[in-house]
Amino acid sequence: MKKKDEKSRSRMKGTPARVLKLIKPYRAFVILSLLTAAVSVAGQLFIPILTGNAIDYMADQGRVDFASVTRIAVYIGIAMALSAAAQYVLGTVNNYVTFHVTCDLRNLAARKIERLPLSYLDTHLTGDLVSRVIADADLLSDGLLMGFTQLFTGVLTILGTLVFMLRVSLPIALVVILVTPLSLVAASYIANKTYRFFQLQSEVRGRETALVNESIEGMKVIHAFGGEQESLRVFDEVNEELEDASLKATFYSSLTNPATRFVNSVVYAGVILTGALFALSGGITVGQLSVFLTYANQYTKPFNEISGVVTELANALASAARIFELLDAEEDPADDLDARELHPEDIDGHVTLDHVDFSYVPDKPLIEDLTLDVLPGRRVAIVGPTGSGKTTLINLLMRFYDVDEGAILLGGTDIRKIRRQNLRAAYGMVLQETWLKAGTIAENIAYGDPGAVREKIVEAAKAARAHGFISRLPQGYDTPISEDGGQLSQGEKQLLCIARVMLSLPPMLILDEATSSIDTRTELKIQNAMARMMEGRTSFIVAHRLSTIREADVILVLADGHIVEKGTHGELLEKGGFYARLYHSQFEGVSI
Predict the structure, then answer these.
(1) In which domain, by residue range, is 109 found?
(2) Which of 19, 334, 462, 492 keeps 20 to 30 A from 249, CA to CA?
(3) Once rounded to an integer, what is the mean pLDDT over residues 508-521?
(4) Which residues contact 112 (CB under 8 A, 6 or more apart)?
């Protein structure tokens, strides 16, 4: 816990400076905000002086200087108008700066997520990332807006009030100045204590957001296995933890206002007592005493506002620290300066794995000394039990992860010497887990080739046997779908993904259980189309249904990250080894 607090304080030290760096491009607007705040405060502080003068013109018994009072009333109206106009400009400028800074920060976070390695995304909850980019950015926005609006005017009001009070009466102003530090000390002490609790509140809120996200996405599974009570129990635990952190943060932050109000009451009482004594002795006029009482009230009010600002800023800085923690995460290493820029037509499809070692967790090797040479145009099937390294091999080929030892070569070139964008553009992928984006059916099919004409899109859909169900949709290819394609069946979503690859037709293919969600009849129909698609293209096919890989040029059988068998379908059956037992278990119920 102590180390965690030290780490939290370390992040806190650098966070304000980084927030100021985000504000720097808008410094002209910040200066304008300060100027308008100064005009607004000056107008508000000038009014008590005018009011005091008006009182003095009416203080003599039986005589009121109506001309002077009328003139002062006009000046008061002008001061109020200038102050109101400045306040309007101040609010507009502050909103502009705040929302642009928040927008910039969210853009930085979104671009950062695009550059994060899969290893980071695999080990961090999606809901927590969403909470940082959305909720924490909103909290920072609220804190900045309150800081700009109330902090500027509050500080200027305090300074301006002191200046005016010093001009009217030095002894009474000294009473105010001597008591003021008590309020500052109380606010500063409480603010330092509250930051830690706001930091904890932000962290727990992120976990709760992640839990809600997971529960909604997995609602069918929760209902299917009767896990409602367990899901609620886990949520209650996190929710109670958030309640506890929020209560502590709110409690300690709420102490600021009463503490400053107490000090402010002392200041006001001191001004009343001292001012009354001076007025009775003739040191100040009745009008000047009214000025002091008004200033004492105006002087103490900003302290209450600033105490609220301090609380919001503590919350905002805690939220900003979480966003900066995301921005500081280690990115995918940049492409080498001498990395080659290959175009699909330059890629022959010759893939070599040279003594490859890889592990997700240090000291727990998954793939060891894997060597493989895939000639151009060959269809390579990869089979094996769960956890044997099939999908990991695909991740390495696409360079979602880099190998620990050895190398993967494409056309004789280490893929680490090829630009990632070019390498990944050389592959077409159809995965077991479908991915669709919010848009029309046509846009989803054309995701890999946005410039494709409608005729090509329809042709690809027909080849994937998706044209039939698309034609039955309300708007055909222009039918909008949600991000997860919720209104489509799993099989229909997979057909769209197959059509997407058939449209772009890159030089190499990766099919990871590409037909796992398609019924057998439809699967048989698209086998010929996929066979034509794979002609002349190096293809890696991950399959559990072994009937789909009989025509592969070579079948690799993986177990514990090693190739334990290698050959054609017929050759492996003749060997009677692991593959043969696996194959017969699917068709004859033989135990492996």
Answers:
(1) 2-327
(2) 19
(3) 74
(4) 326, 327, 329, 331
SS (H, E, C) 251-297: HHHHCHHHHHHHHHHHHHHHHHHHHHHHHHCCCCCHHHHHHHHHHHH
> Does residue 445 fall inside a structural domain?
no
Distance of alpha carbon 177 from alpha carbon 299, whole angstroms: 11
- Read off the pLDDT of residues 239-269 as tens digits, 9 standing for 90 and up: 888 888 888 888 877 777 677 777 777 777 7
Q: Which amino acid is at 469?
A: F
- Show the beta-strand stretches assigned E in 116-195: none
In a domain, 51, yes or no: yes
Answer whether 0.70 is exceeded by the pTM: no
Percent of the chain exceeding pLDDT 70 equals: 87
Strand partners, 540: 380, 510
Write the DSSP string, 327-390.
Answer: HTSPPPPPPPTT-B---GGG----EEEEEEEE-SBTTB-SEEEEEEEE-TT-EEEEE-STTSSH
C-alpha triplet 429, 558, 377: angle, nearest 5°: 45
Q: Which secondary structure element, helix H or strand E, spans residue 448, and what is its range? A: none
User: Which of the 8 DSSP states describes residue 545?
Assistant: S
- Does 591 score more than 50 pLDDT? no
Quick one: how far is CA 482 from the chain centroid?
A: 21
Give the closest residue to 409 by CA, choosing from 401, 400, 418, 420. 418
Length of the chain: 592
How far, in Å, CA of 383 to CA of 1, rounded?
46
Position 527 in a domain: no
Count the domains in the chain: 1
Give the Cα separation of 505 and 528 in Å (integer). Answer: 15
CA distance 527 to 534: 10
CA–CA separation, 196 vs 314, rounded Å? Answer: 9
Residue 1 confidence (pLDDT) above 60: no
Q: Where are the alpha helices (DSSP H) in 446-577?
A: 454-463, 467-471, 490-504, 520-534, 569-575
Contact call for residues 52 and 291 (beta carbons, < 8 A) = yes
What Å distances lie between residue 95 and 82, 92, 133, 392, CA to CA?
A: 20, 5, 19, 48
Q: Is 42 inside any structural domain?
A: yes
Q: Looking at residue 115, which CATH number applies to its domain?
A: 1.20.1560.10
Q: Quick one: tokens of 586?
A: 């699917």
Alpha-carbon gap, residue 342 to 127, rounded angstroms: 37
Contact 275, 172 (CB under 8 A): yes
Angle at 205 between CA 200 and CA 208, to 5 degrees: 130
